[in-house]
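From the shared-data thread, chain only:
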Amino acid sequence: MSLLDALKTEDYPLATELAASSSDADIRQALHDSFFMQNLHRHWCAVELLITLAQRGIVSLSLGKDQSNEHTSNKGDSNDEPSLPAELLAALELDTPAPTAPAYAIAPELLQHLFTALQRQSQQNDIEQQQQTLALLTGLLPNVTQLDSDHGELLRDAIRRQLPLTVIEQLIAAGCSPLALARDQSNYLSQIVRSVAVTDGRFAAYMAYFLAQGLNIDHADVVRDTPLSLAVKQGDCDKVALLLDLGADTYLLFRDDASLLALALAANHAEVIKLLQQHGLQFDFDSVDREQQTLLYRFLKGPGDVDLKLLALLLKDMPDLYQPNRDSYRQSPQATPMQRLLEKSPAALQLALHLLRPDLNQTDADGNSALHLAAANYVNYEQRRADDILARVKLLVSYGADATLRNHQGLTAAEVASDDDLKIEVVTWLKQQESHT
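Structure, as C-alpha cells:
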C-alpha cells in the first residue's frame, strides 16, 4: 500500500511507517493528493504521524510566529549579512539556492481539535475516549514549541472550555506558565471566574490549583478588576462565597474607587449585597464621586422607581437623608437624598421613613421642609403624579411632618402645592391638617 492509500484509508500507523521511508517530495505530494491538511479536523488523532512530519520539517508544531526571517526585520540588531538576490548570484556565477517549501503550520488547529474532543468527551462523561485523547495530547505536547505564546492563550482556552484539571497540569508541565497575563493584564484566576461554573466542583479545583502555583487572588487587571470584583459583578453568590473563603480582600477599591458593595448595587445584585454585609461590609455613605455625589444620592437620582429590596439593604446601614450633595441639574447646589426620595414611589418613601425615622421638620437653605419639597413636585399634566404627591404628603405627616411650617417666603406646604390645579386634593388635604394642628 502506498502512503497516499494509507492517508485516504486513515491507516495512521501504516502512514507513519511509510512516511519514515519516503522522500519529502513524495510525502508532500501524498498530503496534497489526499487533501490531508485541508481535512485536519478528520485527522487530529494522527498525532504520531504529525510528529514524524514535524521532525522532517514538513509541518510545524510551533504556536509562535515564524521567526526564520527575524534577523532581516531588525536591522542593527544582528551582524548577519542579507542574502543575495538571484540576479547578483547569477552575475557571480553562483548557484541559486533551491527554494524550500514552507512547513504546514498545524499546531493551533491540531490543539483546537484535541481540546474540542476532550470537551465533548468530558461533557458526555466518556471516560474511555477521554483517556485515549489525553494520551494523544500527552504525546504531542513535548513536540509543540512556544506553548506560552499569545499571552498564554492556549492555557486560557483550556480553562474557557473547562477541560479536566489533568489537561491543565499537562499544559503547565509542558511549558505553559501559570503566571502568564492576558492582554488586559488579568491572570488565570480571573479567567476562571469568567468562564467556569461552580456547580460541578471544577471551579474550586481550578482555583485551588492555580493558587498553589503562586497566583495572587487579589491581582487586578488594567481596569482594576480582581477575581472577586468580577464575581460580584456577575451576581454569582457561590463564586463570591468561595473567593471570600479563599481570603480575597474585601476592602479593595475598584474602578472609580468603587467598593464591592457599590459594584453589587450598580449591578442590582441584592443577594450578593446580603452576602457581603454578612461578612461585615458596610456601605460607605461619606465618600463622594467626581461629581461630589454620595452612593445613596447616585442610587436615588436614577430615572424611574428604585428597587425596594436594594433600597432596604442600603438603608440598613443608616445613611443620612439630609447629607448635602452637588447636583448641577438642580436649582440648589446643595441637593440631598431626601429630595430625590420625594421623587420616587410612595412605597420607597415609606420604607425610608419606617427604617430611618428622620427629622421631617428639618429645613434647607430656603426654609423648605420635606413636606414643602414633596408639595412642590411637578405633575407634568399627569393625574398619576398628583396622586403620588398626595400619597407622599400623607406619609410625611403621619411620620411627624408639621403642615403649618412656613419657608423663608412665608409659604406653607399647602400654599406651595397651589401652583397647579391638578394638586387641588393635595392643597385641600394639607389645609385640613393645618386646621387640626
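Strands lie at 59-60, 104-105.
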